[in-house]
């Protein structure tokens, strides 16, 4: 029979395992987007239900621990953060699936320069998610704050891409390609937002205070 604190550590390790799975989805999708690899995109879409199951399992474990142990103060915060982080990770996985579905509608050689700009955005968002999970693992508030600082870069790139996309001459482009690129950019921008959310949960877990790091 595990002690309560060993159960808390188990929850954290399970959550980090879920985070690792989401990271793999992000990485595979970034590569698939760069290569327009539709087969990998299909696999990413099919894999999503596994992450959904991990989130449901985490919710059940944490809810049971709270009801049985009735933790307070720091221990309760850790469990609340686990619920929030697992929910955010599941939503990130959904966004990766959304990117896959939109990308499958794109032409392989359509608007290449914009696609390359989105790849840059994607790389930053991927690094943010990786560092946010590292910050959670180590309870590292400084790293969490550094992650949040990167969000402005993603927002700026996204804003610039959108402005340039909608300034294109309609006679030279297909409007559905512009729309799909805009959606992909929005989903990447949301992944970066969730990485910032994770960083904010790290700060809350450590000191019990809510800070808007964005």
Q: What is the β-strand count?
A: 0
Q: Assign the CATH architecture.
A: Up-down Bundle
**Which band does the percent of strand residues land in?**
under 5%
Could you name the CATH class? Mainly Alpha
Q: State the CATH topology.
A: Methane Monooxygenase Hydroxylase, Chain G, domain 1
Indicate the radius of gyration in whole angstroms: 19 Å
Count of structural domains = 1
Q: Write the CATH homologous superfamily.
A: Phosphate transport system protein phou homolog 2, domain 2
The pLDDT mean sits at 91
Percent range for helical residues?
over 70%
- Please, how many helices? 6
Q: What's the helix-strand series?
A: HHHHHH
**Quick one: biggest sheet?**
none
**Uncertain runs with pLDDT below 50, 5 residues or more?**
none
Helix/strand-derived category reads mainly alpha
Termini Cα gap: 42 Å
What would the principal axes of the Cα set say about the shape?
Answer: elongated
Assembly status = single chain
